[in-house]
Amino acid sequence: MAGVQDQLEIKFRLTDGSDIGPKSFPAATSVVTLKESILAQWPKEKENGPRTVKDVKLISAGRILENNRTVGECRSPLCDVPGGVTTMHVVVQPPSLEKEKKLMSEPQQNKCVCVIL
């Protein structure tokens, strides 16, 4: 019976409302492994798909899941029903947006010149 509880049935909801899964994962599975699974199963016909795990954010129970955590550590006692399917939301953040954010966050040089007469 403990083996059944160590497995979670997870489906991944994409931003357009379609799903990948559900698929069963051991509780010891890392979030990075979930992201790799999403990359492998990403529908080929969808535009702007993720290229790497860094492009993918997973959200469960309102929290962004950290790559170094396991599925078991990310469980929400309020949302996860034993024997039920857990839905995780997938957000794709293209690398170009990250570069733009870095440029915006860099301090701007002041180009004003004060002249005292």
From TrEMBL:
Database matches in PROSITE patterns = UBIQUITIN_2
Question: Looking at the record's lineage, which domain of life comes first?
Answer: Eukaryota
Where it sits in the cell: the answer is: Cell membrane
Q: Name one Pfam family in it.
A: Rad60-SLD_2
- What InterPro entries does the record point to? MUB, Ubiquitin-like_dom, Ubiquitin-like_domsf, UBL3-like, UBL3-like_ubiquitin_dom
What are the protein's UniProt keywords?
A: Cell membrane, Lipoprotein, Membrane, Methylation, Palmitate, Prenylation
What task does this protein carry out? Answer: May serve as docking site to facilitate the association of other proteins to the plasma membrane.
Its main localization is: membrane
Which parts of the chain are coiled coil? none
Q: What is this protein called?
A: Membrane-anchored ubiquitin-fold protein
Topology of this chain in the membrane:
Lipid-anchor
| GO cellular component terms, A-Z | plasma membrane
Q: Which organism is it from?
A: Prunus avium
Q: Which residues form the Ubiquitin-like domain?
A: 8-74
